[in-house]
Amino acid sequence: DQQVKQNSPSLSVQEGRISILNCDYTNSMFDYFLWYKKYPAEGPTFLISISSIKDKNEDGRFTVFLNKSAKHLSLHIVPSQPGDSAVYFCAASGGGTYKYIFGTGTRLKVLA
Amino acid sequence: DTAVSQTPKYLVTQMGNDKSIKCEQNLGHDTMYWYKQDSKKFLKIMFSYNNKELIINETVPNRFSPKSPDKAHLNLHINSLELGDSAVYFCASSQDWVGGTDTQYFGPGTRLTVL
After folding, report:
1. Separation CA A98–CA B104 (nearest Å)
2. Given B43, B92, B101, which is nearest A89 (Cβ)?
3. How far is residue A105's CA from residue B112's CA, in Å, rounded to a whole number?
4. Checking CA distances to B15, which of A35, A77, B58, B101 falls within 20 to 30 Å?
5. Which of B40, B45, B101 is facing A104, going by the closest CB pair?
């Protein structure tokens, strides 16, 4: 039972444009969401998070939006840079589970 | 200084062997985790220890045994390795574990290949 889904395995974007990565979840009890970024041969690194009491959180070029009614979150990267090319994982926690549930990741390629 | 380190980075072994993966964190965190990323790229938690005590134990074969000698170390021992154990194993740590909101910091991963 895949509770966190990233339906786009890959995404290509031109440098300077906006990258939008999407994530859907099924468990309405999740109350904390995160995005991690992973380069090849490295571990995931924390990027940005959002609590369910908010619908938006911004950190520099990265903004996460949460739509609780749709059980959907998205990560916006503006402007996209070649160094942003990586695999992005969304994760969720809460609902009595003290652990992260990860999606399968979206590979972002930013074209110079 | 590497915050969360794992050894070895690569491990190739035969079916039936026993192997260990070591993890150390120098962040002063109280909680450590082991994750498995399989061929379908699912990153799933296996175990979590808080202050050397097991707090999360997912449905993992009992051939997998974590050991935490102290708060800074969480090792993973695997007995009687099977082909399906081939995966990338990530160690992670967080300051605490309450509510699942503490940011987790991951190690670089250990790629295990069972032949």
Report:
1. 12
2. B43
3. 21
4. B58
5. B40
